[in-house]
Write a structure and sequence with these properties.
about 55% helix; 4-stranded antiparallel beta sheet; Butyryl-Coa Dehydrogenase, subunit A, domain 1; alpha+beta; binds flavin-adenine dinucleotide; Butyryl-CoA Dehydrogenase, subunit A, domain 2; 3 domains; 12 helices
Length: about 425
């Protein structure tokens, strides 16, 4: 399908495709087996400027938006969803700084993340606060020019490999959800160490760590926006980043389907290729149709978001404000419903398609030395992180109810 990508977007896809096919494919099995962090590939991705595609030019970016980020995540994930995650987690660290950072914070940290010389991570989850981020226990107390941070975060992707972390902690436990604030914490800050490294089912080329903060003193200037805005920061970040998870899921699904097609055209049983059986053909058709439907939803959502986000970024740069303030002034809308729809649809598609791909390949599909089972293991996480698909469905329904209530209020007023 021709999605009318611009010349620059097509170049980005081509660059990511070259890295995926030539650099990632030959080594993905190694990183999956060893769970080593794929530094040589990360360097290739940085050299190709793919960490910069969605960031504004003022911070060393290429001036794109959520669509450019999705294109990179999708293309890299066709070869390995775990390696692609390094780009996605850096974006997850960068987006809150982009939306809620002051011009000084944007310049300081985003240019480093755009270069790929320093990787970013985002850490909101705690042992007792998963789907319910309002249960955050990590606490940050103001002491002179510093906040003193104490607490445990877990399941942090790109943990230990990253150097910049967006961290959420309560600055006022009496205010519950309204007491949570967002900070940027640099690796090497005294009191910030790494705990357990997780062993995972999939995305094993990305390291997942527990983070430990013990009397960790963070400069006051590392607070993002104002105290108490943490959950707004997190929600607005997820609105922009969930299409990236959807793109990762679509890449995984497409990668699995491509490998499967190549195999089932060659493999013969009953004197015929497997791809000639109608039962198999219907599975192939269903897989391809779902992937294409997901891609259409994803690209159109990204385009609609970027039409609002980019003018807000330009206004914030001109006026020296945060992007969030510029969005408020421009009356930008929330994208929770649509970004959640992308994540739900594309990740459910990835899980179904990769499972069907294993089925179409038969026994070899189940084996570790054939690439298809890895796609199935990698697909599963896309239904879980950045808000499980149950939570996405809750949020989509909540937004539908709010929209219906506001529509009927307007009808009452105009009647
Ligand atoms: C590999 C991996 C990488 C991760 N990376 C990061 C990261 O980089 N940064 C970060 O902050 N976090 C990260 N996470 C955490 C991830 O976002 C959480 O695991 C996820 O949000 C779910 O939280 P939980 O695991 O505590 O599940 P729980 O909240 O305990 O949920 C368990 C089950 O109950 C369901 N459930 C919970 N509440 C409801 C409800 N209200 N309605 C219906 N169903 C509900 C859930 O959908 C799920 O099926 C990562 C997790 C994994 C596994």
């Amino acid at each position: 399908m021709d999605y009318g990508l611009t010349e620059q977007q097509r170049e980005i896809v081509e660059l990511a495709r070259q890295i995926a096919q030539k650099k990632i494919k030959p080594v993905r099995e190694h990183y999956d087996k060893t769970e080593e962090f794929p530094w040589p590939i990360v360097e290739e991705i940085a050299k190709a400027d793919l960490f910069a595609v969605y960031l504004p030019e003022e911070c060393g970016g290429l001036g794109g938006g959520t669509l450019e980020l999705a294109l990179v995540a999708e293309e890299l994930s066709k070869a390995c969803g775990g390696i692609a995650l390094s780009v996605a987690t850096s974006a997850l660290c960068a987006i809150p700084i982009l939306l809620y950072g002051t011009p000084q914070q944007r310049k300081r940290w985003l240019s480093e993340l755009a270069s790929g010389k320093r990787l970013g991570a985002f850490t909101i989850t705690e042992p007792g606060a998963g789907s319910d981020a309002t249960a955050t226990k990590a606490a940050a107390r103001l002491d002179g020019d510093h906040y003193v941070l104490n607490g445990i975060k877990n399941f942090c992707s790109t943990g230990s490999a990253a150097e910049l972390y967006t961290v959420f902690a309560s600055t006022n436990p009496n205010r519950g959800a309204r007491g949570i604030s967002a900070f940027v914490v640099e690796k090497g800050t005294p009191g910030f160490t790494f705990g357990k490294k997780e062993e995972k089912m999939g995305i094993r080329a990305n390291s997942t760590y527990e983070l430990v903060f013990e009397n960790c003193r963070i400069p006051k200037e590392n607070l993002l926006y104002k105290e108490g805005y943490g959950l707004f920061v997190a929600q607005d970040t997820f609105d922009c980043s969930r299409p990236g998870v959807a793109a990762q899921a679509l890449g995984i699904a497409q990668g699995a389907l491509d490998e499967t097609l190549a195999y089932i055209r060659m493999r013969k049983q009953f004197g015929q290729s497997i791809s000639s059986f109608q039962a198999i053909q219907h599975m192939m058709a269903d897989c391809a149709t779902s992937i294409e439907a997901g891609r259409a939803l994803l690209y159109s959502t990204c385009r609609a978001m970027d039409r609002e986000l980019k003018p807000a970024v330009d206004k914030a740069i001109q006026e020296g404000t945060t992007v969030f303030e510029a969005m408020e002034k421009l009356g930008s809308r929330r994208w929770t419903k649509e970004s959640g729809m992308c994540k739900v649809f594309c990740s459910d598609t990835a899980m179904r398609v990769t499972t069907d791909c294993v089925q179409m390949c038969g026994g070899i599909g189940y084996m570790r030395d054939f690439p298809v089972e890895k796609y199935m293991r990698d697909a599963k996480i896309t239904q879980i992180y950045e808000g499980t698909n149950q939570i996405q469905r809750n949020e989509i329904a909540m937004m539908m109810i709010k929209e219906a209530a506001s529509k009927s209020r307007k009808e009452l007023v105009s009647a």
